[in-house]
C-alpha cells in the first residue's frame, strides 16, 4: 500500500512538472518575461494547486502571469472582485440603490451614491488613463500594465467558462467582464484610500453657499481632536505588526521576518495567497490584496518583506480665500482663479439618473468635511481644497514587483527609492545574508515643519501638531508644497527625507511612528507629517518592543521562535493592570462596586477570576473575556487619571504604568463589565474561545487573540453580540501571516497562514480550512521550491486558457 501511494505521488508530481515544463519556453534570464502577445487572444497559464487551495501560477510572460492570477482570483473571490469593479465603475447605485451603505473596502463613502459620484467622476475625467500613459518610473511600467491586461482577460475567461456557485452573486447581472482600465482603477482606489478616499462624502456633497445659513463648523480645538481620531492608525480597521531580525540575533547569521498585517476579514481588502513564477524572471510567494496583479506581502528565495500601516498623513488641506462676489472663484496672491466644474451623472436603480457638480481647484477637489466630526463649511468667504499626492500615483504595483524580484534588502530599498509608490505603509524586510531593514517610504505631501509654521491657518495651527494634518493658506503662492530633487513627482518628499533604519538586531513597527523602530536606536529628525517623536506609544507597540527586544537579546533565533511570538497571545494591558484591579476589588466593602447610573453590583467573584487569569488571550484562557470587557470600558477614563506614573519619553516602553484604581471610571468599568456578562448568561471565568468565535458552515471555531487596547500582537477585533453568545464574528485582525528565514539550501524556511482562508464562497472547500488552522494555532509550510510543490499530496494541475 505504501509503495502504491508512493508511486501515485511520484506519478502526479511527474505529470505536474511535465505539464509545466512543456508549457514554458526555456528559462533564461535574458529572454524570459519579454515575449509579448497581441491584445485580444492567446493568453494562458499553468496553475498548480497545493494544500489549502494555494495556487502556484507559472507563465511565460507578464501578460500571461496576470491572466493566471486573474483566473485564480476569480475562482476564489469572484463576487468580491465583481463588487469592487462595480465600485470603481461608479455603478453601485444602478444595481443596489443609492442609499445603501458600501462595505468601505475601497473608500470611506457612506452611501452607494456618494461612492458612485466620486468614482464616476474619476472615470469621466480620464484620471486613470492619463496615469497609465505617464512614462516609468513616474508611471507604471510596461510589465505591470501587461499584468493588468492579463488579469482582466483571466477574470473574464473564468466567468465565461465557469458557473458561479457563491450565493453572494450567483446569477447576478452585475458580474460582468472587465477591462484593464477597471483593474488599474481598483489599484488607484487603493492608492487614494488614505487621501481623497477619506473625503469622498465631503467632495461629492460640496456645493457653493446659498442664501441659507452655512453649516456650522468646529473650533480649532475640536478640529484637532477630530483629526487625531480620524488619522490614527490604531483606530482603523487596518493596522499590523512586523519585525525583522538581523544575523547577529539568529542561529545561523541569516535574517528572519515575521509579518502580521491586520486587515478586514470580509470584503475587498482581503488578502489572497499565491506563488507567481516566470522562469528566469520572477519567482515569489505571498499574498496580494484582492484585484492586485502583483504580490503585496511575501518572500522569494532571498528576501522577505511585510508592511504596516504608517502614521504619515497622506493628505493636506488648503484653505481658500474666496472672491466676495463669487464663491466659485478663489484668490491666489490677489489674482482670481475660477474653480473647475465637473458635472457627474450616476445611473440609479428604479429612478432617473442623479447629476451633481463637483468643484476642483489647483490644489484638488473642494470638500466640505473629513468625516462627520470634522466639517469644513463652504461659506461666502472660505472653502477647503483637499490635496492628495497619491491621486497621481499608480506606482504601487511596480514597487511591489521590485520587492518580488529583490535579492537583498538593498534591492528592496532601491525599489522604494526608484518607484516611490507606497501610499500608506511602512516596509520591513530581512534577507538571506542577515540584513534587517525598515523604511517609512510613503507618498506624502511635502509638508515641512517650516512650511506649516509659515503657512498654517488658525485651523492648521491646531490640527498639524495634534495629528499631522496641515491646513495651509491657499491664497499665497509661497505656501506651495515645493519639490525634492530626488522625488519622482512634484509636491512629495524624496527618499532622502524618509525615516530609515538598517542592519539593527531588530526593526519593528506596530503602527506607531518610526521613533521606536528599535528602542535602542530611536529615529528622530523627520517632519511632523511622518508622525510623532517622544510621545506615548500604543499598548501594542509597547508589548511588541518588549517581546522582540527580549528575543533579540536571547539570540539564536529560528523560524519556530517567530511562530511562538505570533501565538504567544500575551496581554500587556493585563500585566499592567489586572493585579491592581484584583487587589482593589478584594478590598471593596461587601464586594460591591457602583456601575453606570449608580447601580450597585456584586463584583466579588471578579476579584478571584482576575487574580487567577494567566494574562493571556488564548482561546482557553479563563478571565480574559472579563478583563477584555472591563478594559474596553476604561477607555472613557482620561489617560492622566488612569495611570499613577505618567508617560516619560526617557522610559517610553514602561510608561505610563500603575493603574489608578481610585479613578471613578475604573470601578464603574468593572461593575458594568460584570453586569454585562451576567445579563448575557456568560460566566465570569468562561474560557475566552467559548465566547470569542466564528461560525463557518455551521461549525463554531474558537478564536484567540485580542483587541487593540489590550496590546495583543495577534490582534483580533471581534464583533460583540451578547445575545448570540459573545464575540460572534471577527471584523478585522491578523490576516496573511508569514514567518520566514533561511538555511543553507536554496529554499526559504517559511510558514504562512491566511486566517480567513482563500475564498469567501461558503461552498468552496477553501472557505474555512485555514481558519480552522488559525483556531488551532497551526501553520502552513510554504511550498516554494519545485521539489516541494511536486510532493504536495493535494497537487492539482490546471492549464487555463483565454478561450477553449
Features:
804 residues, disordered N terminus, single chain, six-stranded antiparallel beta sheet, alpha+beta
Low-pLDDT segments, ≥5 res: 1-40
Broad shape: globular
Distance between the termini: 39 Å
Which range does the strand content fall in?
Answer: 15-25%
Class derived from helix and strand content:
alpha+beta
Tally of individual helices: 23
Give the oligomeric state.
single chain
Strand segment count: 33
Percent helix:
25-40%
Taking all residues together, what is the mean pLDDT?
Answer: 93
Computed over alpha carbons, the radius of gyration is 27 Å
Tell me the major beta sheet: 10 strands, mixed
Biggest sheet strand order reads: 20-18-17-9-8-7-6-2-1-33
Detailed description of the structure:
Belongs to the peptidase S45 family. Residues 1-29 form the signal peptide. The chain is α+β, with helices and mostly antiparallel strands. The chain is built from 23 helices and 33 strands. The strands form eight sheets. Strands 20-18-17-9-8-7-6-2-1-33 form a ten-stranded mixed β-sheet, sandwiched between helices. Strands 21-3-4-30-31-32 form a six-stranded antiparallel β-sheet. Strands 10, 11, 12, 16 and 19 form a five-stranded mixed β-sheet that branches. Helix 18 packs across helix 20 (664-679). The longest helix has 27 residues, at 62-88. It is globular and about 70 Å long. It starts with a helix and ends with a strand. The model is unreliable at 1-40 (pLDDT under 50).
